[in-house]
Amino acid sequence: MKPRSLFLSARTFVPLVAALLLAGCSHAVFDPAGTIARQQRDLIVISTGLMLLIIVPVMVLIVVFAWRYRKGKGGTYDPHFDHSTTLELAIWSAPLLIIIALGALTWSSTHLLDPFRPLDRKATALEGQVADSQALRVQVVSLDWKWLFIYPDLGIATVNDLVLPLNREVRFEITSSNMMNTFYAPTMAGMIYAMPGMQSTLHAALDRPVDSTGYSGNYSGAGFSGMRFRIRGVPEQQFAGWVNGARASGRTLDIASFRQLLKPSEKVPSMLFAVGDKDLYRRILERCVEPGQPCMGDVMRKDMGHGGTGHGAMPPGRGSVPPPGDKPEGALFKSNDEKGTGPNVTKPTDTRKAPGTTKPGDDANRNMT
């Protein structure tokens, strides 16, 4: 094959390979529609630029040194060279300054972009104008393999369709039904974990109209790749009309319909509901949706002795801190005669004692560890 033909083949092949590889990249992170996502994009760009201040000169110097000190160049040979103050300062000062800059940027951004922090506390860093009104609450539930969005203050819910008003703070309360997952809306904010029995929080806002896609960022089974939801940012008036349409959708979200949603399903189309059970999210969070399942809060209250069983709270076991007023005085504050007279709160249980009784709820059955 002629050299010109090889050149033409390479010129055709390289762009095709580049296009194939770049097809897997998403531009959503660099096309933010909200103040939080915009600050995160800027953080990525600034951090990358600071790191390139080291990487690019090093790559260039590798080529320069290889060319300048190549064999046969006739350069001066100095086998006794072992130190250069100028070179040491250049080698260490530049990376050190960049590390300090990256550390300061990371520390300030970590606190400024804390997802639990309401937007009004970030007011000095907001580029858009977030409306001075009560935050819109959206309760997010990760299911197999779909997303449930509950608007508790509006009495509606959706599946795989997140619609938000522009220039209004949104407080997301995020949990999962049975599998750890991640809620990721790249045009609005960062990635937040969704875990069963726990609640994460995210504050965000959209400041321009958008129609984009959110993802699950954590592998959760066969339908993970299709676990996507639509994100729409609309003006307040259009949002109010959408809410009225959801209320009149004819579907009601209650315990019975939620149990149907719990069944694994893939690539589920968007659905609208009117919320029929205002306590639904709490029951999802406390994992007591199925018949006969006790809610975690009730179990904990019962374990603390407030469940009305009649036998009071469980007494402290070994290693526990005594109640206020019963804590023994430290040895440093005692006289020699007093030392050794206080109760030993860490003393192991006497194994020679008879075990508890067979009577349920008897205090003798407690503190057996």
What does this protein look like?
With 369 residues, the chain is of the alpha+beta class. Among the domains are: 32-68 and 86-113; 136-285, Cupredoxins -  blue copper proteins (Immunoglobulin-like, Sandwich), CATH 2.60.40.420. It is built from 7 helices and 12 strands. The protein has helices at residues 3-22, 35-68, 85-112, 236-247, 255-262, 280-285, 296-303; strands spanning 136-143, 146-151, 156-159, 161-165, 170-176, 181-184, 191-194, 200-204, 210-216, 228-234, 252-253, 271-275. The strands form 2 sheets. Strands 8-5-1-2-3-12-11 form a 7-stranded mixed β-sheet. The chain starts with a helix and ends in a 66-residue tail after the last helix. The model is unreliable at 121-128 and 307-320 (pLDDT under 50). InterPro entries: CcO_II, CcO_II-like_C, COX_ARM, Cupredoxin, CuRO_UO_II, Cyt_c_oxidase_su2_TM_dom, Cyt_c_oxidase_su2_TM_sf, Cyt_o_ubiquinol_oxidase_su2. Residues 302-369 are annotated as: Disordered.
